[in-house]
From TrEMBL:
Entries under CDD domains matching the protein: Trans_IPPS_HT
Phylogenetic lineage: Bacteria, Pseudomonadati, Pseudomonadota, Gammaproteobacteria, Cellvibrionales
Name of this chain's protein: Polyprenyl synthetase family protein
SUPFAM superfamilies per record: Terpenoid synthases
Keywords recorded for this protein, A-Z: Magnesium, Metal-binding, Transferase
Co-factor(s): Mg(2+)
Family: Belongs to the FPP/GGPP synthase family.
Amino acid sequence: MQEVRAVVRAELDAVNAVIIDQLRSDVEMVENVGQYIVDAGGKRLRPVLALLSSAALGGISDLQVRFAAVVEFIHTATLLHDDVVDVSELRRGRPTANSTFGNAPSVLVGDFLYTRAFQLMVALGNHELLKMMADTTNTIAAGEVLQLIRAGDPATSEAQYYDVIDRKTAALFAAGCEGAALLAGADAQKVEQLGVYGRNIGIAFQIVDDLLDYEGDPEITGKNVGDDLAEGKPTLPLIHVMREGSKVQASMVRDAIQAKDREKLPEIIQAVKDCGSLDYTRHAAIECRDKALDALVDFPESPAKDALVRLAKLSLERSH
């Protein structure tokens, strides 16, 4: 990942400077909570994608740097809201903002970050971009609601699972790539291709996240194993067990999802292994990675394209 970031290191530093500058507020709590979650680090994956997409089209402008900051603000706002909804206590290896400051400050500062992102977008002066990001933000919110509705519902189908992660996660990946292309004045085909790349990277990223919930190391992932199960999330490994496992295995998983209980986590981890559910899930992520790579085929060779290809491969190889 360090090699990928190195291609846009200077521009990523500029993005971080914009983020710090735009977090300033005369309300102390806004700065405290915003700075807390920014200081927690993270991969900055979405702004990196926006910057690499820009570079793959010929160069990175100041407008594209500021847009990359917009994408990170929207992502950060979703994290603040997610952790409240999921009653999460740990993210990136340390207490979540809601655990530290409380639910109300986390929600309200998330709202601040959403609105700050749109202030920055208005200043970019691109109506097509503003419309796309407004639609994307609405899509993400709808995805969050769908995920909430389906929490604890073992009848969730594989198609419904993909619908949720497409809206909740992949939409912002796609928008970051497409937005960079719009600001570059790229033709419709290039905008679409980068959108396909970003969307499939986003889906693969979420699928691997779901894998790590059952085979990850908490010391590396910064999250507790079985968190998804405790929240009643019917993720792909569990959906596969319920469909392909024995009656006993399927019943055990259904009961755990409905109860939002990880009491039988060791047995469920064994079930997802015995049923080949981890391999099935990993293969689904590989298919998305390959679709992402196909979308880049006719882009000219460049360090940025090489980094996008490497990033697609890293989306499957990561441990956190």
